[in-house]
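In the design runs reported in the main text, the only information available to the sequence generator was the tokenized backbone. The following block is the verbatim input for one such run; it is reproduced so that readers can re-run the procedure and compare outputs position by position.
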């Protein structure tokens, strides 16, 4: 992918954004998008009108409306799709059909057919699709990628990635969707981890996997659903082995329902050193490196770039980067092709368990280019 500068476009008029889905994550997007001179949020919509009106009032959005009205609004040039995962494909396809660029929350879709339809329609209409996660554009993972490109670590050989936590019934006001179709820990949290692995090691060639449901039911402990029992139909423990086109291999373990462990978020084992990767669901550090030489010790690496506070949530900088890419005539780093490959890998891990054999990955993608050090993805301070 061409590594174009992200500067030099500040004189262009802001791209007009319409946001569909005014739930839990929408306020974070609004804070960061409102801080960027590259975009202007002109409308927000939700199937519950009160939620759209509340978000519009809180952030000064001039129009709150139904999704259909937003999709038909000629002022909207790019739709930010923050609907529930099972609605991602429908909303993205309708937005593309209306001639609008799309940035979707993860995953791109919940099946390959819908994912391909999104990419095919964007290609046919000359529109751009980008997709979360955009956490790999933060200082933590960009610092890791720059270290890898500089050659200090040597050749990447293998990696491990672990996400084991208690389920969303303990913290999310509407946890049932996390345990149903198109969800579970792999499709919900896996995009952060698989995207980071692809950025570090390149596209995946084949996978094998196992999965199970740890508990057939869980009980919500907060919000309006507190005390309600949720039937679990999505696997809540998934273990995958990934082989990359580069020859590197990785172990991936994802789970809802395990509350205590001492495993790292992610490590990459190279011929010259091991690098400890920060939580790929955040934008900051810490980043640590340990040389393979005898008696070496771990050392902290100073973060490069902006967005270095791991406690801050910068979601939305992927939208800003996509707008800069659209103006530069190139694919965004958080591209639809990357998101589709990640989806293909995750679905293949689940299919491997079902059919009892390794699955070859039919899709591929380019590793996103490293951000230039002068990249200015303005977000809320």
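Verbatim output:
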């Amino acid at each position: 992918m061409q590594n174009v500068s992200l500067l030099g476009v500040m004189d262009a008029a802001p791209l007009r954004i319409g946001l569909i889905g005014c739930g839990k994550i929408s306020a974070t997007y609004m804070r960061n998008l409102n801080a960027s001179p590259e975009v202007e949020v002109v409308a927000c919509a939700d199937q519950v009108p009160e939620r759209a009106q509340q978000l519009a009032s809180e952030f000064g959005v001039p129009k709150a409306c139904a999704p259909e009205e937003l999709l038909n609004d000629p002022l909207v040039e790019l739709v930010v799709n923050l609907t529930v995962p099972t609605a991602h494909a429908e909303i993205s396809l309708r937005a593309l059909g209306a001639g609008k660029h799309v940035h979707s929350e993860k995953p791109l879709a919940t099946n390959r057919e819908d994912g391909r339809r999104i990419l095919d329609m964007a290609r046919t209409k000359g529109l751009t699709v980008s997709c979360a996660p955009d956490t790999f554009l933060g200082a933590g993972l960009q610092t890791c990628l720059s270290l890898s490109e500089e050659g200090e670590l040597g050749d990447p050989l293998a990696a491990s990635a672990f996400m084991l936590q208690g389920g969303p019934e303990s913290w999310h006001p509407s946890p049932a969707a996390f345990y149903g179709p198109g969800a579970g820990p792999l499709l919900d949290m896996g995009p952060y981890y698989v995207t980071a692995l692809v950025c570090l090691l390149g596209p995946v060639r084949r996978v094998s996997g196992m999965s199970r449901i740890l508990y057939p039911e869980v009980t919500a402990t907060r919000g309006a659903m507190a005390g309600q029992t949720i039937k679990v139909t999505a696997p809540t423990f998934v273990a995958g082995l990934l082989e990359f086109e580069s020859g590197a291999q990785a172990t991936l373990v994802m789970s809802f329902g395990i509350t205590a462990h001492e495993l790292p978020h992610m490590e990459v084992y190279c011929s010259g050193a091991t690098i400890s990767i920060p939580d790929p669901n955040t934008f900051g550090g810490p980043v640590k490196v340990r040389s393979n030489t005898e008696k070496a010790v771990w050392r902290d690496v100073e973060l490069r770039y902006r967005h270095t506070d791991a406690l801050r949530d910068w979601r939305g900088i992927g939208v800003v980067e996509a707008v800069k890419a659209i103006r530069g005539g190139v694919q965004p780093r958080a591209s639809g092709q990357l998101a589709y490959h990640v989806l293909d890998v995750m679905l293949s891990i689940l299919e491997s368990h079902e059919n009892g054999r390794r699955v070859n990955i039919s899709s591929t993608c380019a590793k996103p280019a490293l951000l230039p050090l002068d990249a200015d993805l303005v977000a809320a301070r």
